[in-house]
Fold this sequence. Notes:
Elements: H1 13-56, H2 100-106, E1 117-118, E2 127-130, H3 138-143, E3 147-155, E4 161-168, H4 174-181, E5 185-187, E6 189-191, E7 194-196, E8 198-206
Parallel strand pairs: 1-8
Antiparallel strand pairs: 2-5, 3-4, 3-8, 6-7
Amino acid sequence: MSYVIIKSEAADLRKKSPLWMDISIIASLFIVTLGFYLSQSDISDSILPERVKDQIEVIDIPPTVQNTTPPPPARPSIPIEAEDDEEVDDVTIEDTEVDINEIMEDIQEPEEEDEVIPFYAVSKKPEIIKKVQPIYPDIARRAGVEANVVIQLIVSKTGLPTEISVLRGHPMLNEAAIEAVKQYRFSPGMQRDKPIPVKWAIPISFKLRN
């Protein structure tokens, strides 16, 4: 017994093989192309950040220190010679002679102050050679005031009364006593045959006459 195999057109692949081959080739090319572009984009994405990072990297630069140099010293001024046309007047200084003796005469040595000797210690005491009566003040006369005014003074070497003051007295009579003593004159006191100033006290009496 024998069998007969009958091929249908749907099962016959030989007729359809060229079409499928073309489709498979085109699909393969598309997949390969797509994979190539995808791989290129991944590579570019991985490289680009590194490049950008390299470009944006900040480099720290240390600040530059400027050396401040001091200003140069001022140049000394150079004297300028006068032009020949300018005439300079000659100044003649006369010789002056100084007389030292005249200068020494003008300079007076300070006078030494004489020591004032109390009246009781003088070998020769001063004496009154001119005495003036005091003028009785009217206010003291009307008030009936009588008193003795003790005047202290220094009899100078020339016999004049100096440094007059009141040791004891009365307010109404003191000024009149001082004015009277100012007019007194004395012979100076002597010590070792030399006139000396002498401190003395003189009583001036004020009495009313009845």
